[in-house]
Amino acid sequence: MNAEALDYLRRHSGLSLSAEGVFYFHGEIVPNTRVQALFHAGLEVRSDGDVTLTVGSQWAYVACDGVARFIDSVGVSDEGLVLTVRGRGRSVITDPILGVGPDERFYLWEGESGLPAVLTRTAHQQVAGLLSESVAGQLTLMLAGREVPVITLRRNPRAHEAFDNP
Fold this sequence. Notes:
This protein is 16% helix and 41% strand. The protein contains 3 helices and 16 strands. It has helices at 3-11, 33-41, 121-128, and strands at residues 15-17, 23-25, 28-29, 43-45, 51-55, 58-61, 63-64, 70-76, 81-85, 89-93, 96-100, 106-110, 116-119, 131-133, 139-143, 146-152.
């Protein structure tokens, strides 16, 4: 197959990712939960904003209107913020940026250069239980002895955007 034809097939794969983190193929939900998990593990956000899915040696573009990373659980430990990121497993971050978008969902960046992730409903409830209000009236998350402010975002972030209060 020539390069142009292959690029066309990759760009018109019919794969899309919803704001809730559910994969669709030509408008129909991908029904198998194991395939959903496999797809999340193979997601990549490129620096140009394109979202791709790699399974084995094959890859294709994925239509994605929002972020492409989803946080399924949140907790606090002595080391930092403990996250379970869908398709990536557990990690601990020490320098999170936490914001609330106009859609009233929590978004998180792993530092200023990290890509955004959206908290799922369960993670949203977990982080809400960890928040407190500062003297100035701002919501904060106490993490390793310091307050991490919850920022009000001007707009919902896109998959490839490092933090810049989008």
